[in-house]
Amino acid sequence: MDLTSILADSSVVQPRRTSSNPPSIAAASPAISVAKLPSPQISTKPTRKRKRHDPKPIWAVLEHEQVDLPINGHTESRQPRPLQTPVARAPPPPVPSYANGRPPHVARPAVGPTARELTGWQRPITDDPYVYDEMVRRTCDFIWNHVVEDRALRTAVEQSPGAEIEIEARWGQIIDLSTGRRLVSVNETECVIRQDVAAGTKFESTMSVMQHKKMNEFLNEQVGKSKNTPSRTDVNYKHTKEVDMFYDLDQAGFDLLAPGVREIIARQQHRQRIRVTRDMKTGQVLRKIIKCRIGNLEISSPLTEWDYRIGINVEISYPGPLESLKPVIDKDQTIATSERKKDRMSYSWLSAYQIDLTQVVQGTNKNHELELELDAKTLLKTTEKMDMQEPPPNDYEALVAGMLNNLRVLSREMTT
């Protein structure tokens, strides 16, 4: 948990960028002052009128409601399902009293609490107890469409032992490809970037060594506070050192994969690689993974130094041997300089979230990354337990809201 040895290593060059496109080592630092950003250019193109009412998402529809859902460019009507007979519930147990006025520490459930009910002036004229958050709902829709409703993805995972769906959020910056600088627009606050705009950008995930150190200290502090505060759930810490090497997936290896996996790979627009991860100390092979991207959601946060990318991926465990595979070695590189050495500190809690703070060294380049993973199994359990007779907020929505809250809290902590 001490970064002294890392910071003392002066033989390694300044941080490099890791992006969705080939890295540019000569690019400027991502920690750009707002004062230095160019004035946003206002588009003269006509904008679409905002619909008077946003359609209710499928995961928020009650069993007795009839809704019109846009499907493949046209609208289909979903008929209401018959209401289930409610099950009689036992009366709540009496509230216990405690000698010191505070209950003993009890582990919280696997997902966070639902949204706080609005009271007083916060309630709208309709007296609704909840008003949905647009950012949370847009993210809920994105994850629902790319995970819960993607039958091909679910089939691929079911057919492949060890396969996992990955829901990962990264801190970084959305870079405008036309200017080479951080994307600026008409928004002054956090917003989801439209897909047509995101197509002209790339996402770069990196931070300075001092920001890495500051985040390490902040997260370590949260571990200590969680252990000493009965009302908080425990934050667990793990430190790992691993080495990644990439190999090309050849035709023989492709033929070993399950039919559902081959279908997922066929969606991709580039050749797939196998990432082999070994223990840095023993050299033991820990994982052989084919990682396929399913979809990305870009979120701009101009009031901080960091934007976010929420990515859905599927990680397939490669079943074949490594001996016949060809390692991926770039021009003017060797096997040694092509290895990615990862020094990672992980912080997990509620069996739902894990933050990874990682230093990556490849050759003479060093990069620092911050990622948040939402446990897909926990998320899918919330969808199975959803009571369609009760309106949102539900555990699914609360779990996604918790992911966004963690992105915001850590981003503000790092912003100078």
TrEMBL record:
<dbReference type="InterPro" id="IPR037009">
    <property type="entry name" value="mRNA_triPase_Cet1_sf"/>
</dbReference>
<comment type="similarity">
    <text>Belongs to the fungal TPase family.</text>
</comment>
<dbReference type="GO" id="GO:0004651">
    <property type="term" value="F:polynucleotide 5'-phosphatase activity"/>
</dbReference>
<dbReference type="Pfam" id="PF02940">
    <property type="entry name" value="mRNA_triPase"/>
</dbReference>
<keyword id="KW-0506">mRNA capping</keyword>
<comment type="function">
    <text>First step of mRNA capping. Converts the 5'-triphosphate end of a nascent mRNA chain into a diphosphate end.</text>
</comment>
<dbReference type="GO" id="GO:0031533">
    <property type="term" value="C:mRNA capping enzyme complex"/>
</dbReference>
<dbReference type="InterPro" id="IPR033469">
    <property type="entry name" value="CYTH-like_dom_sf"/>
</dbReference>
<protein>
    <recommendedName>
        <fullName>mRNA-capping enzyme subunit beta</fullName>
        <ecNumber>3.6.1.74</ecNumber>
    </recommendedName>
</protein>
<feature type="region of interest" description="Disordered">
    <location>
        <begin position="72"/>
        <end position="104"/>
    </location>
</feature>
<feature type="region of interest" description="Disordered">
    <location>
        <begin position="1"/>
        <end position="55"/>
    </location>
</feature>
<feature type="domain" description="mRNA triphosphatase Cet1-like">
    <location>
        <begin position="133"/>
        <end position="374"/>
    </location>
</feature>
<keyword id="KW-0378">Hydrolase</keyword>
<keyword id="KW-0507">mRNA processing</keyword>
<dbReference type="InterPro" id="IPR004206">
    <property type="entry name" value="mRNA_triPase_Cet1"/>
</dbReference>
<comment type="subunit">
    <text>Heterodimer. The mRNA-capping enzyme is composed of two separate chains alpha and beta, respectively a mRNA guanylyltransferase and an mRNA 5'-triphosphate monophosphatase.</text>
</comment>
<feature type="compositionally biased region" description="Low complexity">
    <location>
        <begin position="19"/>
        <end position="35"/>
    </location>
</feature>
<dbReference type="GO" id="GO:0140818">
    <property type="term" value="F:mRNA 5'-triphosphate monophosphatase activity"/>
</dbReference>
<keyword id="KW-0539">Nucleus</keyword>
<dbReference type="InterPro" id="IPR040343">
    <property type="entry name" value="Cet1/Ctl1"/>
</dbReference>
<dbReference type="GO" id="GO:0006370">
    <property type="term" value="P:7-methylguanosine mRNA capping"/>
</dbReference>
<feature type="compositionally biased region" description="Polar residues">
    <location>
        <begin position="7"/>
        <end position="18"/>
    </location>
</feature>
